[in-house]
Amino acid sequence: MNPNRYLTKSRFKLALECPTKLFYTGNKAYSDQKLNDSFLAALAEGGYQVGELAKCYFPGGVEIRELDYATSLAKTDALLAQEEVIIYEAAFLFENLFIRADVLVKKGNRLELYEVKAKSFDQANDTLTNTKGIVSKWKPYVYDVAFQKYVIQNSKPGYDVRAYLMLADKSKRATVDGLNQLFMLSEDEKGRTLILHTGDVSSAALGERLLCAVNVDDICSKLFEDKPFEADDPKSFKQWAHFYADNYQAGNVIQGKLLGRCGKCEFQATPEEEALGLKSGYKECWQRAAGFTPDDFARPHILELWDFRKKDNYFADKKYFLVQLSRIDLEAERVKPHIEPGMSRVDRQWLQITKSAEANPEIHFDKAGLNEKFATVVYPLHFIDFETTAVAIPFNKGRRPYEQVAFQFSHHLLHEDGRVEHKDEWLDDQQGRFPNFDFIRQLKLALEGDKGSIFRYSNHENTVLNKIHEQLRLSTEADRDSLCTWIETITHSTGDSALKWKGDRDMIDLWDWVKKYYFAAECRGSNSIKQILPAILNDSDHLKTKYSQPIYGNSIPSLNFKDQTWIKLDEHGKVVNPYRQLDPVFAGVDQELLDAMILDETAEINEGGAAMMAYSRMQFTQMNDVERHQIRQSLLCYCELDTLAMVMIWEGWRAMLT
């Protein structure tokens, strides 16, 4: 037993996700797929800059930077001897529970705890609770600050402790320009992330406050009552905290429930890692809790079933494999009757189940359905992809926290005679500028020259253009009316829009066509373009023949590639995923891992984690021209491949229809 093996707030949060993870976290014997690069993690989360802004709202504080427990605790106690003091990263220990408070304000006998989160809260409309209790999306954050309050109250029983969540207030607008650029990320000599102030961060210079403090004392009081914290266990919130801490300190395994979220467990080892001797915590869980054998991990699992929403119920009944499901099980999940052409959600799920039982499953290709769709398009065809982000601290005056920011697009053109060209691209990497209005002007120039059909992949592009439409209407841009009118021609209004429209050139969702008319078992239920592309390349002799030659960036015009051969085969004769041919945006970090690191605020950004972090790095770090050029080129190449992938899907289908 390690006496300094304390349950921290991050470990408590991890235990609430899954208590078994407490055994695996920090255990070097187990693979951990979470990003271990703290600097890139800071870019992904956005929390460092929000945390620094919060400190500016509490000026004059003392920061405790020491990481060892004893020193940080001693420094905290010394500072608390003052009548009034502000402490950043104050440390508290109660038994084997240890926390560091983001901001602690001492006023006589009162301690105010502020837990800062890079999470949005509309102070005018949002609440942390409803008639059923704590709102589901807020539970992890409330439990986090409640855990901290519990530790402080018990380590310093003579104080009146007040607890707050400090959040980005989406009801507020920045009243100064360049606010985000005041906080630049850097690293010290030990590799720790630092924030550099690049200008005046006084209260007057920061303008109106963009962070709000939401009191959680009443919620904490209810959590601290001696009532069951979970429905199927008598332990209270406080008892669970000590249960986790005691088992973590002892190095015990707490076996959690098998749930649908297990599919995203970070403690899954790749075959390559297992060959090197790393263990898979994910596999050990299934072996302990469900009696899995090594062969069972090769069987098609319910976790792989596309858009299956009641996995937990089936796991509770010890149903784990696709072969154990019937079509009746799927029909029970039907949300509404299917009246549109093509496969329904249930049809696609059942197809995945039946194909998983076949030794050599063939693709499903609805030739009649796609022939009807192909007959409706107008040439030339336009294929577009956007890269976007949403930052907590706005770039410019008048912008709100987490407003949509569109910084890049790619555009491929496919002519009726089969000619392909990478026609346009646009990327704004200028620091501190709100790019959306220039983005839409450039997109309009790229698409307005004809009436050809425009394709996107998923809902994201339509949502982004709706947001820019709203931003334009509230702006003073001289051309806002013409830009809004043009946006309306290629989009349809979303449900939360005050205006309603459907353009006569409304973009076509290729992702929707994939879901309804095409299925490849090798995608294992995924409809991600990064999975669909290699599948259709493997299926299509036409594509293999065409793109096995170095024609891309030669006879096929490209803005970023020259003499590129996209078809390369692995040792099994399968096409190597073209995305794997590109240099990573960040050296030494897996692209898929970066893509998976998406903020809740930007959850609709499909597979854009790497691009989002690259843009953040260009915006919020100091880098030389060579590094900036490398990141820019990586962004351009990835976005170009996204629209080329759409072209390839279309070309493969067209060849299969003839």
TrEMBL record:
Pfam families: DUF2779. It comes from the Bacteria. Residues 382-528 form the DUF2779 domain. InterPro entries: DUF2779. This is DUF2779 domain-containing protein. It comes from Mucilaginibacter aquariorum.
